[in-house]
Write a structure and sequence with these properties.
The protein is built from 8 helices and no strands. It has 190 residues and is mostly helical. Helix 3 runs antiparallel to helix 4 (69-92) and helix 4 packs antiparallel against helix 5.
């Protein structure tokens, strides 16, 4: 038994038995996790700026107009959605497939509308269901609604809207895996 096989967890041993490799699987997993961390960080930057836009417009609308709380929030959310699309398309997901912009925008708006309902549904329930409508309470429940909607948006945008192109690394990894298969190595002259 080699040293690598003796120092593995059960999951690593299973992967090694399936793939026949030791270090490559862990390195590929680390690379994918690092890529996901970068994506989450970029999403967070755009999202944080979007939150600032959303709160600024919401509070401006609340204090300078006679609009009801939820209507002011819906307007603020729509402004933030427009801001976020530009940020996501040209910063967070700039390396993603750009071929179907009409479809991308349609899906973005569809999932953003669902997020708008989640975000403002929380505010609506707090305001009209529980009677919590002071400026502080409105901002707190708007923030909670934004948090729930953000989780939904992150999943939906990365899964359906800004889809990845086939990565060169994935293709190279698959090709190298095929090159190292037992059938290929047995057929090669030594």
């Amino acid at each position: 038994m080699d040293h690598d096989a003796a120092n593995t967890t059960g999951a690593e041993a299973t992967i090694m038995s399936i793939t026949g490799r030791t270090g490559r699987t862990t390195g590929a997993l680390r690379k994918r996790l690092a890529g996901l961390a970068r994506e989450v960080a970029k999403f967070g930057v755009v999202g944080a700026l979007g939150v600032l836009v959303n709160f600024a417009v919401f509070n401006l609308m609340r204090h300078s107009t006679d609009l009801q709380v939820v209507r002011a929030s819906v307007i603020a959310t729509v402004v933030a959605i427009a801001f976020n699309y530009v940020g996501f398309r040209y910063f967070t997901y700039r390396d993603r497939d750009k071929s179907g912009r009409a479809k991308e925008l349609t899906l973005f708006l569809l999932f953003s509308a669902a997020g708008l309902v989640i975000e403002n549904g929380v505010l609506y329930a707090a305001t009209y269901g529980f009677g919590w409508h002071s400026p502080l309470q409105s901002n707190v429940f708007k923030f909670l609604g934004m948090g729930l909607a953000t989780l939904f948006r992150f999943w939906s945008y990365r899964t359906w809207v800004f889809r990845t192109l086939p990565a060169r690394e994935a293709v190279a990894s698959a090709e190298s895996f095929l090159d190292e298969s037992p059938a290929t190595s047995a057929a090669r002259p030594r």
